[in-house]
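[Q] Does anyone have a clean structure-token version of this?
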Amino acid sequence: MFPDGVGAYVDLMQNLIPEMKDGIVRTAIDTGCGVASWGGDLLDRGIITVSLAPRDNHEAQVQFALEHGIPAILGILSTHRLPFPSNSFDMAHCSRCLIPWPKFGVIYLVEIQRILRPGGFWVISGPPINYETHWKGWNTTIEEQKSNYEKLQELLTSMCFKLYNIKDDIAVWQKSTDKSCYKQLNTLDNYPPKCDDAIEPDSGWYTPLRPCVVVPNPKYKKSSLESIAKWPKRLHVAPERVVDVCASGGAFKKDNHKWKSRVKHYKKLLPALVMNVVSSYAPNTLPVVFDRGLIGTFHDWCEAFSTYPRTYDLLHVDGLFTTESHRCDMKYMLLEMDRILRPKGYTIIRESSYYIDAITTIAKGMKWDCFKEAAEYNIETEKVLICRKELESTCMVTYFRSGI
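[A] Here you go.
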């Protein structure tokens, strides 16, 4: 869908959405991302994108993206919600992603509405946009594509989106911040209907898709795209939703200071840090992550992570085994970490002294080269284990089959 290259495509998009140029738009999701060319180009423009694609006949699209340092996960809009909280992304994008938006009770369209921040943009190119020019190449009729476009526009309007801009093959809709529009969803004849209060808007782990619209919580008055701080100031401002996970903005500042100290300590040992993964069983801090202009996902570490083997250069674990060892077998969690870690990649494990020795024993069996470091404040009950994955060996398979 980029006949003149992805750079020219994004240039046109920025002309249609000036907010992409000045730090207002910071986080994005690309559904049906292909090889993540769009997300890769946006990285150079200060916008960080989660590229989402299934493992289908295109084979290793996500692996290709990760090899190029572009954030990506395996995933598909199907029967369950995407693993993100509500009001997460500033922008969503679909370029010939072939998702049947108006069909199946519009469950795919309302899922985009759920994860998009109020004031955020939904960008679509390909069918049915500019159907007057392209309908012959889509193996369809102009009447069918006109009907599809009009139906899409009707549905988006009923879900409190407005057509923000359109030119050539790109159309942009904006999710409304107008509370009066969302009140109209209460009417019985509105389609799709408003979700009832029993449906948790931030639940994103094995949560079935439902054909209803999640209304932004009216208690959050500064979480819309127009109200949130621009990047990079946004990173350091206490998000409004932080009160859902800690008592006050003061607690946020304390935690922020703590992690600045930890990262400073890590930089003496290793050069970089990456990614945010929130346990589906832990307090839901992921909305705060997105509000700060960062990205992340839900995950249950008793299961496999949605990615290919050998895709991450660095893993960081803070208290995972303390909080999850009652549910998950430690060796299988470590085995999954080994699967997704690139050979010669590093793992930083911050744990209680009680678990460090057991982790070290298992890591040795996986042919990891590990050394212990004191925590930044020399706390005796907490240690930092730095491990490097060596080149893969068949010895590791033998080790885990032995049941140690």
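[Q] Thanks! Anything notable?
[A] Residues 249-267 form the longest helix (19 residues).
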